[in-house]
Amino acid sequence: MRYYLSDGFVLKWLETPSVYDIKEDELYELDNAAFEFLKECAGSDGCGDERADNEFIDYCISERILTTEPVAVKRSSLLKSPIPSLRYLELQITDKCNLKCGHCYIGKPKNNEISPDKIKIVLDEFEEMQGLRLLITGGEPLMHSHFDEINTLLPEYNFRKILFTNGLLLNEEVLKGLNVDEIQFSVDGMKRGHEAIRGKGTYKIVMKKIHEAIDAGIIVSIATMVHGRNIDEFDEMDDIFRKIGIKDWTVDVPCVSGNLKENHIFQVPPEIAGRYLNYGFGGGLHGGGEGFACGLHLMSVLADGNICKCAFYSHTPVGNISEGLRKSWQRIMPVKLDELECSDISCRFIDECRGGCRFHAEDSRKKKTFTNAMGMI
Predict the structure, then answer these.
(1) 49-53, 72-76, 95-99, 172-176: which has the minimum mean pLDDT?
(2) What is the rounded distance in angstroms from the CA atom of residue 50 to the CA atom of residue 35?
(3) Same domain, yes or no: 176 and 244
(4) Confidence of residue 372 (pLDDT cuts 50, 70, 90)
């Protein structure tokens, strides 16, 4: 019997040898013997059963990792990843947008966009570094003047592609031609809450586009920001999103940057906003790692070509795409949980919270320091 690594599965040499299910977004860690066996199975001739025990083969068959049908797919290079590994790349292909959301962290767009040639160089290196998920963001990424060309590049790569969009430009033609594994829509409330921050008429459109994407067989996730006009709408959102088959619902509190600095009406105090983080479901888009804070495996490329540890840190870039991803990644120092201030109080939630969003935490600390200095508390 010959076995082949199934379509949609790819080997990744991370901190631990692994096989990644791109379609289902599942990562399986392997020992060295299993990794070597699956490397042989990933070849065009497949592999026999003489080099692995039947129990492992049966497991791989049950998980659809292996198939007995020949598979003609492109396999990634297996250069060992840096440690920590860069698994999730937020690629802001443009900062152009067709909305002026009251909570947008970018603020006024500068009409930057990365050329398809430079994007290809970035994607080549991300795959070489054993990347898992590409987060295609903006602005509104569909406003990139050469989005079709970028979309044509995507099938070349063996990592998961997720398009972030407000949905307004996602017509039937665009939807049919998308080369992504998932679309994440921004929905910031029911009609009243969503339109308070995104504009009149936007709620009906985005919900229509969500249903069209689901009907087209595309996996859909939703991101919601807590703001001053949607805090009484979360139960209703939860009910609707579960009923229509949303994969992940991510709930977050926007950082007070960009447009939100001027729109105080949408700001919610942390002691209130934090309660709504209990909403949401699914695995989320990226996490930390054992013993480390948020962002252990994440880096962002901005529309001006600068690179930072996440988009909120656009004011403190660590490099530029002209240098390549690896050099910039080496400049980002992982944050250990035992080095955080909150670890000193023996917080029982620290392993789940992982110190929360580091930009939020650092921003709050600066504000507290400033207020203390002014003698106000």
Answers:
(1) 72-76
(2) 15
(3) yes
(4) very low
Please report the pLDDT score of residue 109 as a whole number. 84
pLDDT at residue number 27: 96
Integer Cα distance of 68 and 139 in angstroms? 44
Q: Using CA atoms of 64, 68, 70, 73 in order, give the dihedral in degrees to the nearest 10.
A: 20
> How many CB atoms sit inside 10 A of residue 364's CB?
14
**Number of other residues whose CB lies within 10 A of the CB of residue 317:** 18
Q: What is the CATH number of the domain that holds 283?
A: 3.20.20.70
CB neighbours (10 Å) of residue 117? 10
Band of residue 237 on the pLDDT scale cut at 50, 70, 90:
very high
The dihedral through the CA atoms of 21, 167, 298, 150 has a sign that is positive
The average pLDDT across 357-362 equals 61
| Torsion sign (Cα): 140, 209, 156, 76 | positive
d(CA 115, CA 322): 12
Query: What's the CA angle centered on 243, arms 240 and 249, to 5 degrees?
Result: 65
**Number of structural domains, the chain?**
2
Global confidence as pTM: 0.91
CB atoms within 10 A of CB 157: 20
